[in-house]
Amino acid sequence: MAKLSASLENNLNKQGFEDLDAEAKSCFAMPLRFTPAVGTILIVIGLLSQSAIWIGIMALVALSGSIWPKGMALDLVYNLVVRRILRSPPLPPTPTPRRFSYLLSTAMLAISALFFYIRAPLLGSIFGGTVAIGGAILTGSLWCLGSWIYRLFLGSKRRVRKSG
């Protein structure tokens, strides 16, 4: 298996995947791009069509990622369909920093949908476009703005001790 660059490994750690060993991180580096890639494409479709309903549905998809620790709806698609085609392991559970990022995306997409609904497409495009840009960055580099914000404000170094 190819060794993961220090930058990509650091980006995965910042999302909360620090408990995975180097081999697992290398194995999951590409599959963990599936959700943000597909999500970004679907958001861009909603932005181009200026559809409040489409963007609202994407807000619900993002919400699924913040409330389901095993992964969002798109992770489920990956685990049930795509990984079987690619013969890869299922995605690991979604760590708290990445779930927080999904919560931020939920809020931004809900606001975007509201602006499209009230016929304020510029504001809808700004809020939704911000999420699309963040998703594109996450897809390309595995750097997650929401996880960065989580670690900045909610503490990154505090770790829950595992009883053993």
Helix-strand blueprint:
Elements: H1 6-17, H2 22-28, H3 34-49, H4 52-67, H5 73-86, H6 96-117, H7 121-141, H8 145-154
Helix pairs in contact: 3-4, 3-7, 4-6, 6-7, 6-8
Q: What does this protein structure show overall?
A:
With 164 residues, the protein is mainly α. The protein has one domain (30-154). Helix content is 72%, strand content 0%. It has 8 helices and no strands. 37% of the residues are buried.
How many domain units? 1
The biggest beta sheet, please? Answer: none
Arithmetic mean pLDDT: 91
Shape: globular
Short structural summary:
The protein is mostly helical and 164 residues long. It has one domain (30-154).
